[in-house]
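User: Predict the structure for this protein chain, please.
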Amino acid sequence: MTNYIIISSYQRRRIIVEIKTLINEFCKTRPEAEVIIGYGSGVKKQANDKGFDKQIDLIMGVKDSTKWHQENYQENPKDYSKLGYLLLPLYKNLGTKINYLSYLPFKDNMFKIGVVQTNDLIDDLFCWDNFYLAGRCQKSVDVIKSTQLLDQAIIHNRLNALKIALLLSEKKEISKIELYELLCSLSFIGDWRKILHVENANKVKNIVNGSLEELENIYNPLNKNYYSQIDNDLISINFERILNETMTLPIPIENKLDMQTINSHHISQEELKKIREIILTYLTKVNIKASAAQPFKGLLINGVSKTKTYLMQKLEKK
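Assistant: Here is the predicted structure, written as structure tokens:
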């Protein structure tokens, strides 16, 4: 039994290395990107995964997205539907500033690449104006190619995600699993796929259970007395400590929190409830806007066949 676990772990590490090599090879077939981030179940393990034979999801930050698509269309015209490419300048910033090219074959694998201008990616990580990219980078991701500014933005984004997740807890004492489920659920609050039951109902639990060790490695160093450890699993949240740092929260949320009327040194349950409502209202608003626009953009740029395949696979995962 022990030998099986060791071999399985070794094989999984080899597969991860092979995926990273495959990603680097694939990216050489497309115009240059300044930053590359791999995410999703094709790159990062989730609970109940049956393997790594999934579409590989990438975010590619580029200097000029218009120029990038022009060059890519010349080199890889099959990445686009003809109508989608022609109309791309009209809808590329609709809802989100990222545009996905799906089901791109490469060496018996399929890739999905989200192309966004690097400055827009950085802005979303710092400010949460859109939250579509920020939400993805709050989970475990593989940064394949980076810059110093991107590294700083990812840490800042995750620090805010930790504080917001803690503020959303209705209890002062929660388990670490509950914390990570709150944290990984931020990007799904208001998501139309969840509302319409298109998304797997256990997706957040699968993400947490499949990447628990990585989440611990990411978020434990970011805890600056925002919570204290009671035992191996249970934590006690320091709401007052978090609310003393509201100036560092994403600007759209900070602007909605009227801290002048709140005593952050002795906050009441009613005030915490009001803060949770403000946060949930904002996240619902940005997530529903982004998640509603993205399928429409995907239909245009990728065509009917690829979009149908995407929806069918989502339904099969339920």
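Residues 1-7 have pLDDT under 50 and may be disordered.
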